[in-house]
Design brief:
50% of the residues lie in helices and 12% in strands. It has 696 residues and is α/β, with parallel strands linked by helices. The strands form four sheets. Strands 13-12-11-14-15-16-17-18 form an eight-stranded mixed β-sheet, with helices on both faces. Strands 1-2-3-4-5-7-10 form a seven-stranded mixed β-sheet, sandwiched between helices. It has a three-stranded mixed β-sheet with strand order 6-8-9. The chain is globular. Coenzyme A binds next to strand 6. Coenzyme A (COA) binds next to strand 6.
Length: 696
């Protein structure tokens, strides 16, 4: 007999065992119907004298993956999750949670309040709320340490990672790992315990003793690792609280903190990014049911720094790679460099020698284009020069399968011109990796006007497969990330001309949350590299930009950055940037030469000029269609260029500031710095006049 509770939860019986099945695709999130359905299942279970035990399990791909994020910010609808969990805790007959897929957040909190927890072999468990700027609010914090101890619970709660079924069993989170069919295994297990009817309450367990210094040590580590993020620190506070507070009172405090966090700006920003990352996978003009092409072997052309890193991305995802170079010598060097990079992973303990050898077997090095006849996709990563790349495209066209995809890794060249030089322009797109390609998460995929929809679907799926955050962008010089960065770099340089110091600018931007300031970053990249990049683009620059040649002067003085021990800063053994009076003198001389008086620049001006120059450029990219959505730009900057995630990305930040204020500030800097640099983009004018933001 099927005892329906509602559209999201059904109840059925197997002898003395009732089985409540949650079915709320796609991830069985705890929306109102699920909470209400489970409460109703508990009502029926408690009223049913024949029923000795209850199993909670889920249909579909996963156990409950947490609260329904779409309900955040809406009025709370009863029953709350806390009320459901309290009912589970007080239930006088045993309830068994049977988990598969990812039991996350509120899903795991439900399991923690059950008498027994079972997991299928592939199940993973975690409390990922911290990644959304939140913390568990329905018993995760007060119960998990009672089961697995304070140190492990603190890691799971403050960092949001997942653990697998076997580790969960070893730690005491799970009672049994079920192999084979979860439902039948769970029913068999529950029939075994139903007879005894033994109820176990996690809330009755004492908090296991732990090392006194643990909280202070972890607090410091978390502050370093998650700079600027509040939730990991509050996690430590709450763990400390739960160790000294009676259970019921601790439950209340945990919930109150969670409510406060839901309303916090950091959580709003992180939730925005969660949705933004998923929205970025939906590509205009590519229907959701578009089948990606099969990619089981790839080629990378060009064994330079980028090519090697890109090859590693595919090897790391177990895809065979053919690396094509012009000579055996360059290929040998590339292979050795790849081995060396993996060697670093071995030293850090994240890879074994055997894994290294397995990975290297995926790499084939060739000099002959004929050897690319069976690859499904090629990433071209040769010198950044249109005629060199066109030549590669022509040669590829002669040997590739008709449906093989050619993806260029160009950073600045015109994708349309490249596509036109291929025999099958519909197979051409861009896959713009960032250096170091094997480490950087961001992947700007580039569409050209004739690229096939299923090529776009393929490079998106492939980007995900290799662990990147793929965002589709359109034709534009420098695409999205670099074009916006170039405006920030320009303002940083202009600020030096106007009287700011490199230290001041770096301090303001790292204070905002960037991992490194622009001048310390330039010292890392190398002044010779920066100067060459400047020369390559000098023809398109304004007269002030052309004359703003501080980089050239530093390079000419041999101040190439960290590699020569001096750039914008001085570097000693410890590689920490130190102030150098010689740079002050060089800047003073530059200002005199250029006729700029030095004035006091406020931190506010530095921040606004650097960030608003980016936002203004982004608005132009949106109007040009090179970026499809404001939220895509937020994903690009948070996953690629160090924009702090808790600030949501540049467009989210601008929306928080308010577009009217953004426009006012742009008008102000138009007057101070010049119209050609700060005239508000047409989109900003429109949004300001309509009282709207980038995201609505
Ligand atoms: N509430 C509402 N919707 C959710 C959700 C949640 N907690 N978690 C995922 N979804 C939605 C996604 O938005 C996506 O919807 P879309 O297809 O319309 O874009 C869909 O479920 C699939 O999610 P996706 O992340 O693309 O699938 P995945 O298989 O890669 O990962 C999870 C599945 C559950 C691991 C992942 O979605 C996740 O980590 N979710 C958040 C879990 C969480 O933080 N829970 C605590 C909330 S306080």
């Amino acid at each position: 007999m099927n005892m329906i509770t509602n559209e999201a939860v059904s109840l059925d019986r197997d002898g003395a065992v009732l089985i409540a099945t949650v079915d709320n695709p796609p991830v069985n999130a705890l929306s109102h119907a699920v909470r209400a359905g489970l409460v109703s299942a508990l009502d029926q279970f408690e009223a049913d004298a024949e029923a000795k035990a209850l199993v909670i399990l889920c249909a579909g791909r996963t156990f409950i993956a947490g609260a329904d994020i779409r309900e955040f910010g809406q009025p709370l609808k009863e029953p709350r999750l806390g009320a459901l969990i309290d009912r589970l805790d007080r239930c006088e007959k045993p309830v068994v949670a049977a988990m598969h897929g990812t039991a996350l957040g509120g899903g795991l909190e439900i399991a923690l309040a059950c008498s027994y927890r079972l997991a299928s072999q592939d199940a993973r468990m975690g409390l990922p709320e911290v990644k959304l700027g939140l913390l568990p609010g329905s018993g995760g914090i007060v119960r998990l340490p009672r089961l697995i101890g304070v140190p492990d619970a603190l890691t799971m709660i403050a960092e949001g990672g997942q653990i697998g079924a076997a580790a969960a069993r070893d730690k005491g989170l799970v009672d049994e790992v079920v192999s084979g069919d979860l439902r039948s295994g769970a029913v068999a297990f529950t029939q075994g315990i139903a007879e005894k009817g033994e109820v176990r309450r996690t809330s009755d367990l004492p908090v296991p003793a732990f090392d006194e210094g643990l909280l202070a040590t972890r607090r410091a580590e978390l502050a370093k690792r998650y700079r600027g993020l509040k939730a990991p620190q509050i996690a430590v506070d709450l763990i400390e609280m739960m160790t000294i507070t009676p259970f019921a009172e601790a439950v209340e405090k945990e919930y109150a903190t969670c409510r406060e966090l839901i309303a916090s700006p950091q959580s709003k920003a992180l939730r925005h990014l969660f949705a933004a990352e998923r929205a970025a996978l939906k590509i205009d003009g590519v229907p959701a049911d578009t089948q990606p092409r099969k990619v089981s072997k790839v080629a990378v052309i060009g064994p330079g720094v980028m090519g090697r890193g890109i090859a590693m991305c595919f090897m790391d995802a177990a895809l065979p790679v053919v690396l094509l170079g012009r000579s055996e010598e360059s290929l040998g060097k590339a292979e050795a460099a790849i081995r060396k990079l993996y060697g670093g992973s071995i030293k850090r303990g994240s890879m074994t020698e055997a894994q290294l050898e397995e990975r290297m077997k995926l790499l084939e090095t060739v000099t002959d284009y004929e050897r690319l006849a069976d690859v499904d996709l090629v990433v071209e990563a040769v010198t950044e020069n249109l005629s060199v790349k066109k030549d590669v495209f022509a040669r590829l066209s002669g040997v590739l399968k008709p449906d093989a995809i050619i993806a260029t890794n160009t950073s600045f060249l015109d994708i349309e011109a490249l596509a036109s030089s291929a025999a099958q322009p519909q197979n051409v797109a861009g896959m713009h990796f960032f250096n170091p390609a094997n480490m950087m998460k961001l992947l700007e995929n580039v569409r050209a006007s004739r690229t096939d929809a299923n090529v776009l679907a393929t490079i998106t799926a492939l980007g995900k497969k290799i662990g990147k955050v793929p965002v589709m962008v359109g034709r534009s010089e420098g695409f999205v990330a670099n074009r916006m960065l170039s405006k920030r770099s320009r303002e940083a340089q202009f600020l030096l001309e106007d009287g700011a110091t490199p230290q001041q600018v770096d301090k303001v931007l790292s204070g905002f949350g960037f991992p490194i300031g622009p001048f310390a970053l330039a010292d890392l990249a190398g002044m010779d590299v920066m100067a060459a990049a400047r020369q390559a683009r000098i023809a398109g620059m304004t007269p002030r930009e052309q004359a703003c040649n501080i980089v050239d002067k530093l390079a000419a003085a041999g101040r190439l950055g960290q590699k020569t021990g001096a750039g914008y800063y001085l570097y000693g053994e410890d590689r920490k940037p130190q102030h150098d009076p010689a740079v002050g003198e060089l800047l003073a001389a530059h200002r005199t030469e250029r006729g700029f008086g030095s004035r006091e620049i406020t931190d506010e001006e530095i921040l606004e000029r650097c960030l608003l120059a980016m936002v203004n450029e982004a608005a132009k990219l949106l109007d040009e269609g090179a970026a499809a959505r404001a939220s895509d730009i937020d994903v690009i900057w948070t996953s690629g260029f160090g924009w702090p995630t808790h600030m949501g990305g540049p467009m989210f930040w601008a929306d928080q500031m308010g577009i009217a204020r953004v426009k006012e500030a742009l008008d102000k800097y138009s007057r101070i710095v010049g119209e050609e640099y700060f005239k508000p983009a047409a989109l900003i004018e429109r949004l300001a006049s309509e009282g709207r933001g980038f995201h609505n």
